[in-house]
Amino acid sequence: MGSRLTAGSNGDHTSIGNDVRDFLNSNKRYGARIKDAYGIDISEGFIITFPECLYSWQTIKDIKAQGIIKIDNEMKIKVIIMKSPFAPETVDICSKTELIQKLEKTILSLESTAVLFEWIILIAISTIMCGLFKNWNIPRILSFVAGIPLTMFTIELVIKLYMDINHYQLRGIENNDVVNLYELYNPRIDFLNMLGICVSILCCTIFVVSMVIATKQRRNEIILNKVNKSN
After folding, report:
1. With 1 labelled, which of 62, 101, 127, 175 sits at a CA distance of 20 to 30 A?
2. Which residues cross the membrane (predicted)?
């Protein structure tokens, strides 16, 4: 499977990854090793370490010549390197630590909760369209209910920002100075991943504002209906 991505040489922080040979040579003193899922050493190819670890058998020269990166999506790799130049302990920056797994489960729970309340909102809107609960101020209720998915998406955004900004630290690397020393690709934020959440937050915000406005209109309608009935 080919992915059209801009590739730079090792050391160019605008690149999307590292040439394996260059990466191993420049980080040899830091115990750098790249292995496949079976523990076999990899000495050639191209690796991407953010937002996830991906491998291509192509070298940086092949990628520049062909203008395309052919990612092997079935290939699972381990990129092993020292936590810092002064720490003998090594870490696999492709692994998911217990904290990362907990954060991912939290994100999944937040998304599930948000979707559940969106369905509740959809059902409530359907009842309004069918003319049910005429004496109820449904928009007022919805303005509160819609605040729940808005809160969920906002918390999710904060967690994902935290995970992106601390991508390598969550995997054991000491700090960003070490990340730069190892010449790892580090854009800090995956904006494409954030786009969907930002759109969801924007939609929820617009809906809440709309329901607040509709609440006043609905209240006036209820008052008028009661006045008409009394007459």
Report:
1. 101
2. 116-134, 141-163, 191-214
Do 91 and 83 touch, CB atoms closer than 8 A?
Answer: yes
Question: Domain spans of the chain?
Answer: 2-92, 98-230
pLDDT band at 224 (very low <50, low <70, confident <90, very high): confident
Task: Identify the residue whose tokens are 């999506």.
Answer: 73
Query: Which amino acid does the sequence have at 4?
Result: R
Count of all residues that appear for the chain in the document: 231
Vertex 151, ends 145 and 157: CA angle to 5°?
A: 150
In this prediction, residue 87 carries a pLDDT of: 86
Residue 223's CB: how many other CB atoms inside 10 A?
A: 10
Strand partners for 79: 34
Q: Which of 122, 203, 193 is nearest to 156 (CA)?
A: 193
pLDDT tens string 29-52: 999 999 998 999 999 999 999 989
